[in-house]
Amino acid sequence: MNVKLLITSLFLLLTSVTFSQKISVSEINEKRSTSENSFYNECEIELKIWGDEIRKYKFVKISKITKAIDDQGLDLINEDRTNSDYIKIDQTAKIKLETKVPSRKAKTIKELSGEVSLYNPNVANGSEIKIANYQSKTNVNLVPGKSDIQILYLTKESYAKYVKENKDKKAEELKKLPEAARQLAEGLVGAFDGLFSSDETDDSNKVYFYVNGDKAKFVDLFFEDATGKKIERNGSMSNNNLFTYYFDEKPNTNWKLVINIETDKSTKKVLFKLMDIELP
Q1: In which order are the strands placed within the sheet that holds 108-119?
Q2: Residue 133 and residue 136: Cα distance in Å, rounded?
Q3: N or C terminus of the chain: which is more exposed, having fewer CB within 10 Å?
Q4: How many CB atoms lie within 10 A of CB 28?
């Protein structure tokens, strides 16, 4: 296949000022190809965020893009690449988003609007949950009950036991449970046939967690050793509600589990609107 690529860049200073944060477009990389594969056709926009307020937070991400159009009226929102993970903030934060390629006739992106999330996880604001002896807490929600997200530590054995204990419960019994507990029970029991179907290995260097509820508020999950040092993961994957984490060694009973979730006090949403962004 003969593929020709055109890659162009442009450094800009177009700024949206919101409260004490400033958001600007610092760079645009536009890539075009004669290939029909959309992978070779993209427009990557780098946003820079700075200001006194941002120094109160540790992480930033693009929560959503609400509008992206060029001066020819072409919708540039790329639904396949709108999700964004938090990245660590240094002195300034730079985050990237991808849109569809503008029209060849377009000279500017007429409007780029959306929302940025600032995040500061700690124990005091309820967004960082530290759990010792997590291995003894299978099949129970590890997140405080007031949250609308539930996270459970599972093993294949504990999961099978949970299903056995709950699958024969009548609908009337389930209705008596609190709403979150009822939905969790129904979800776990209903997913029994498929939850571990894609994982048939018995690798002792991995752990499983089941995430239920508003999964958008689930930020991260990791472990610390006895000195508080973060244990590096060897990889992770998710399959619907099941999250699997891999390590170079068997998880130690002395490791402390740390869960990061979004809470009202830990997160700040910042709207931005950038106009007439010049294209390369």
Answers
A1: 87-88, 59-70, 108-119, 267-278
A2: 6
A3: N
A4: 21
Looking at residue 252, the DSSP 8-state letter turns out to be P
Residue 2 pLDDT: 43
Strand arrangement, sheet containing 21-33: 5-18, 21-33, 42-50, 93-99
Q: Is 270 helix (H, G, I), strand (E, B) or coil?
A: strand
pLDDT attached to residue 39: 60
Closest CA to 131 of 26, 251, 11: 251
How many angstroms separate the CA atoms of 249 and 33, rounded?
44
Counting Cβ atoms within 10 Å, is residue 169 exposed (0-12), middle (13-18) or buried (19+)? middle
Q: Which of these, 256, 240, 21, 274, lies nearest to 136 by C-alpha position?
A: 256
pLDDT for the residue 259:
96
Tokens in use for 198?
A: 């894609």
Query: Rounded to 5 degrees, what are φ and ψ at 122?
Result: -160, 165
Within its chain, how far is the Cα of 105 from the centroid? 35
As a whole number, mean pLDDT of residues 259-274 equals 93
User: For residue 24, what is the enclosing H or E element?
Assistant: strand 21-33
